[in-house]
Amino acid sequence: MKDHTAGAPQGAQIVDFTPEHAIAFRKLNEEWITRYFVLEEADVKSLGDPQGYILAKGGFILMALYRGEAVGTCALIKEHDDVFELAKMAVTEKAQGLKLGMALGKAAIAKAKEAGAKKVYLVSNRGLHSALNLYRKLGFVEVPMPPSIYQRADIKMELMIS
């Protein structure tokens, strides 16, 4: 399990997903997603079998641990050789304010860069103001939203990696 903790707050770790994290990954994301949206088929597949759906495609999952407890997740889903989608990024309410979202985002961007990504994108809901502010701080910029299978998303953001 590789540690990506640089820049994380004291008491926190950012680590690669292991099968032991599967229950926490599903729970964190189901709670976050269902607070704002209805689970879609892609959510059900990726949360039910992260090793088969995300990791098998060449993607990555990072977990944020705080004092040993899983309190955040972030996934990079490989779309093409040099394009990844940033998805399934969630931090528990009790971990809000610890800057774990920023640490997860930075670690995910570093993982994408290591994997040869030229672009990382995400789709989101414009109503999630705090998330959009975080993505902007990470360097993402809004781009026109193409027609999409994401019925719930109304904003697309990209980060070009050099």
Task: Indicate the topology.
Layout: E1 12-16, H1 22-36, H2 41-48, H3 50-55, E2 60-66, E3 69-80, E4 83-91, H4 100-114, E5 119-124, H5 129-137, E6 141-143, E7 155-160
Parallel strand pairs: 4-5
Antiparallel strand pairs: 1-2, 2-3, 3-4, 5-7, 6-7
Structural write-up:
This protein is of the alpha+beta class. The chain has one domain: Aminopeptidase (3-Layer(aba) Sandwich). The protein is built from five helices and seven strands; from the N terminus they run βαααβββαβαββ. It has helices spanning 22-36, 41-48, 50-55, 100-114, 129-137, and strands at 12-16, 60-66, 69-80, 83-91, 119-124, 141-143, 155-160. The chain has a seven-stranded mixed sheet with strand order 1-2-3-4-5-7-6. A hairpin with a 2-residue loop joins β3 and β4. The longest helix is centred in the first third of the chain and has 15 residues, at 22-36. The radius of gyration is 14 Å and the shape is globular. The model has no long low-confidence stretch (mean pLDDT 87).
